[in-house]
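User: Is it possible to get a 3D structure for a protein together with its bound compound? The compound here is adenosine-5'-diphosphate. I've pasted both below.
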Amino acid sequence: MRVGFTYNIKKETEQVSEGQDQKVQNGKNFPGNSVPGNYIDENLISNYSHRISDVYAEWDDEETISAVENAIKKAGHDVIRIEADENAFEKLRAARPDIVFNMAEGFGGASRESHIPAMLEMLNIPYTASDPITIGNCHDKSRCKEILTYYGVPNPGFFITDTHVNGYPKVKYPAFVKPLHEGSSKGIYNSSVVNNKEELNREITRIKENYNQHSIIEDFLDGQEFTVALIGNGENVQVLPIVGINLDCLPADFPKIYSYEVKWYFDTRENKLDIFSCPAKISEKLTRKIEDICKRAYHALRIRDWARMDVRCDSNNEPYIIEINPLPGILPNPDDNSCFPKAAREVGMNYDALIQKVLNLAIERYGIKK
Ligand SMILES: Nc1ncnc2c1ncn2[C@@H]1O[C@H](COP(=O)(O)OP(=O)(O)O)[C@@H](O)[C@H]1O
Ligand SMILES: [Mg+2]
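Assistant: Yes, that's possible. Here is the predicted structure of the complex:
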């Protein structure tokens, strides 16, 4: 088959000149101003400057893009690369692939992840993963939680605002403040856990100024965190082994959150944090509960083919959905601690098999004859 492949690529050379990168390279003004200087290692900064700024955090690098392309080729298909930029529609229209493997996180705007699926829908070209409605709903953290709540799927209490507030309505601190529609921990720093009205308003201002969007303010769940990979459609959705996130391995003065600092800065190939365990060492009962809420969330949002969900427990060990990623991150190198490929490896599905499975799920879903 002629398989189109849509993606956004990190533009590494341009980024170093971005304002935010400069700030970080100085080692002092990490966004949020919350990283103590002694954690900033010059060597890491020079090797990972392309990852430290969160401007392009959601996009993929050439290593990932080549790995996906090769996996599709190994299944005997021709691959047509289509970068998801402003020319994407014309390129798709001209190429008219039989199906598209979509992993484009989008170019800009709150519904950026929906742009490519919407173009493909308009052009009547089949594609992997969820449709523009589902992807848009998941990308807006409040819309996603409103749907989950309607279907009775547990998620932390919340409100949204883009102006200063008099406090958390139910006066519950600590609270957690994050941008309404970002991913890859963009905008989530140590300062995101707030303990009073002043800190809450400081974060609302920071998010408005840096990301030009509303904040979503949630009850802070202080229990164990997990991330859960799901694959399949309809009755055949499979929950892969749950990945446990060991937040206790963070420096003592860090809040227990999987922040931008942790995701992209401390946990590098050279300095791998011992942060994930797969399968998570938890009781059978909690495993079943997590699998149950994740499957219910998958169907509530009408997800197709695959997704990764973040889950966190409250102090009573009850799990809640934190967020849903219908275009999950898939770094190919096992040293990069990428959770979906990690969970797949646990059931004997290597990287190529994972990509091919997602493509085949979409081929089956559309009833396409190979
Ligand atoms: N309500 C919450 N309570 C406790 N921790 C949270 C909450 N929401 C988010 N976090 C922490 O912040 C991290 C990033 O939040 P998340 O909503 O997953 O954002 P992203 O889309 O950027 O991955 C989570 O992995 C978790 O550690
Ligand atoms: Mg997340």
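The pocket of magnesium ion (ligand 2) is lined by residues 310, 323 (CB under 6 Å). The chain has 13 helices and 13 strands.
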